[in-house]
Design a protein that fits this description.
By secondary structure, the chain is an alpha+beta fold. It has eleven helices and 14 strands. The protein has a seven-stranded antiparallel β-sheet with strand order 2-6-7-1-5-4-3.
Length: about 375
Amino acid sequence: MNATLSTRTICCKVALDSVADAMVHATQQAFNRAATYCASVAWEQGVTNKNKLHHLVYGATRAEFGLGAQLACCARDKAAEAVRAARSTGSDTCPVFGADSSIRYDARTYRLMSLDRVSLNTVHGRVVGQLVLGDYQRRHLYDTTWKIGSAELLRRANVWYLHITQTKANPAPDEPTGVLGVDLGIVNLATDSDGETFSGEQVKHVRERRFRHRQRLQTANTRRARWRLRQLAGKEARFQRQVNHTISKRLVQKAKQQRKALALEDLKGIRARATVRRSQRRQHANWAFHQLRQFVSYKAQCDGVRVSFVDPRYTSRTCSACGHCDKANRKTQDQFLCGACGYQANADVNAAVNISRAAVNQPIVSASPVGAGYKLPA
């Protein structure tokens, strides 16, 4: 993501008549076959640059799959980005796009029209659909402070959805007067250095209830049970996403009001480093700390709040009053008692204070994908 720009996506339902629906469905299949072909060429040739890949696949993409010039370029771009992402993660498998994957549209292949209509390019010419907008979509889609960019069209449960991206220049970050430290966890999803806590009890309860429900349906394995499982797919993830949106919004608003920077733990690789009991493995695997970090980062960029990430080692066992570091200081999950000075506090609040102080000893930077590497003394 460009550090000077904020990006958001507005998801809008699109209503199409039967003829337009068939034309878009044919385009979806052709587009993703073309994207898979482009990805295979890029993978074999070791090419991830869009311009170099263009000379290798453009002619064949148009001739074999019947795409127009601009849709062929969109398929090439989608393939190049997927191959680049696969290479960066060390994958040894070439990306393949399913027939029901999304169609990418740019400014030349789709156009928003009056009366909430949208014009879409297909392999058989343009079609016009009707955007079905709620209050949220209408308020954000027509916000003139945001510039409309590309879009992705996909089909879920026989309904077409157009995901429209918008961009806006970020405000210049304010010069912070302090740092608001944030400790992340499972029992408490987030705790800031001011003592505000966001409990994970509701998330745990919902996850357990959904897990037991899925188990019962999978055991039954009837036609009705399988239909119900399809209906429930993604519901738990959407609930977790909403919780993380609420927490991140509160943290960023608080930091902005207090003119403070935000300091979060850099928990990259925590699952590989930490060992948990068998009974806690599912809860640990479902811990959505990375999603919360992403939400905090982009919301902070939009509001001009500086964000830094610090190494979390020793923050939970170091006394924020005297600096004494000892594993025995952490008595229980929520109790901290310093063995040197007798300071008592909530363990998560104590860790959040240490995180805020660790951030002061490093340059405060915009949201970064890597941690700063600062370590408290052993």
